[in-house]
Amino acid sequence: MEEKNIKNLYDQLLKDEDFDKMDLGLKKPNIFQILRISKNEIRHSNFLSWLLETNGSHKLGDIFLKRFLREVFSSERFSEIDQIDVEGMNLSKVEILREWKNIDVLIKLNNVVVCIENKVLSKEHSNQLKRYKEIIDLEFPNHIKTFVYLTPEGEDSENETDSYMPISYEFIVDTLDRIVTVYGDSLNEQVKNYIKDYVTIIKRELMGTDKLTELSKKIYSNHKELFDFIYEHKPDVVDGVKSIFEKQILERGWVLGSQGKSYLRFTTPKISELTYVSELRNGWRNRESFLFEFILEPSKDRMNTKTVISPSDPQYNTTRLSEIFMEISGFKAPAGKKWLCNYQKIERFPFSKLDEHTQEEIKIKFNKILDNFSETVEKVELKFLEHKEELLRLKNINN
Questions:
Q1: Alpha carbon separation from 1 to 18, 323, 373 (Å, rounded)
Q2: 381: burial class by Cβ within 10 Å (0-12, 13-18, 19+)?
Q3: Exposed (0-12), middle (13-18) or buried (19+): which is 129, by Cβ within 10 Å?
Q4: What's the CA gap between 376 and 129, in Å, rounded?
Q5: Count of CB atoms situated within 10 Å of the CB of 310
Q6: Mind giving me the DSSP string for 301-359?
Q7: What is the crossing angle of helices 359-386 and 388-395, to 10°?
Q8: Partners of 291 in beta bridges
Q9: Residue 90: CB partners within 8 Å, gap ≥ 6?
């Protein structure tokens, strides 16, 4: 697409009143978006638990809890209890437990327990619903037991349809909307804003039914050519976090090496002093003979952390360096013949959910990986120093 054409399409977008409305709507502050927790299951469970607390700082008392229990007990799956029974319940001593035995939310009443599995974007796995049911049956043998599967669409569980009642986030939205409408004048203004923000986020991020979402579809339809071009040339997910990774490496006193789009390479000052630099091109910009390497794999939500000896000119004995590494516990003979890797380990990293994390959270997660890898760095550095004289001779072969 020519530059002139792009500018014309952009001018048309700026003149679109719907675009101004969208811009204004997106600039309206929302606490859940500010904290980047709009798609985080744990944060949703935390907020719902807060609403369910009868003595919570929201000052709603048992209003939300009652409406939620009525919805749960209306199911024919639970014949021992009915929604009418809610009115006669003493809810003053209810316990709302978070992550009890890995269960998202547990409502514990005098003789009733409600087990809630909350799924925002993920799916059930590892027979978790069955395991939770077995835990509840074991821990509360004399209680009336009910089970809830909370999802954006209110879909049934794949494996526990008979045991778990599906509830949708649409019910949560309708309930909170009604509470704000009926009790809005008596609610604390801050609490009311939190609830409104939460309803907006559910509609926008989980259900796709808020006004801005509908407006965005209209704008896209009217300016499809421009948006498709932008999407095709959007920055890669790695571009957004690589600078954060590099900074954390530097803060540990390590040294960045030759970089690649999906490769993060580094060494230490002491290792660098003993590292040969090839006279021939070996695929690395700075032609180092050795670097620690993290291969970033966003599509698999992981990093492949490894030690790498690169191909070098014939005078430098890369095989000998590999033999030295094999003296380190846990290091193995390399499978390749040119690129020699004596150690590697896969580390999980949530590339696909980076928009749910703040920069500080990203730093913390990456530093955990660096903490795990630092022992390997220390072992390699000690081995370099142990063979310092030999490695210096190898390094200086062409001097």
A1: 25, 54, 45
A2: middle
A3: buried
A4: 39
A5: 21
A6: TEEEEEEEEPP--TTS-HHHHHHHHTTSTT----S-SSSEEEEEEEEE--GGGGGGS-H
A7: 90
A8: 308
A9: 110
How far is Cα 379 from Cα 326, in angstroms, rounded to an integer? 11
Pairing of strands 340-348, 302-309: antiparallel
**According to the model, what pLDDT value does residue 233 have?**
67
Give the whole-angstrom CA distance, residue 309 versus residue 108.
Answer: 58
Query: Longest Cα pair distance anywhere in the chain, in angstroms?
Result: 91
- Give the count of beta carbons closer than 10 Å to the beta carbon of residue 57: 10
Q: What's CA 124's distance to the chain center, in Å? A: 17
343/309 Cα distance (integer angstroms): 11
Residue 308, strand partner residues: 291
The stretches in the chain having pLDDT less than 70 are: 1, 34-36, 126, 233-235, 237, 397-399
Using the Cα atoms of residue 100, residue 101, residue 103 and residue 108 in order, give the sign of their dihedral. negative
Say what the pTM is.
0.56
Q: How far, CA to CA in Å, does 324 sit from each of 233, 268, 275, 363, 386? A: 45, 17, 13, 33, 10
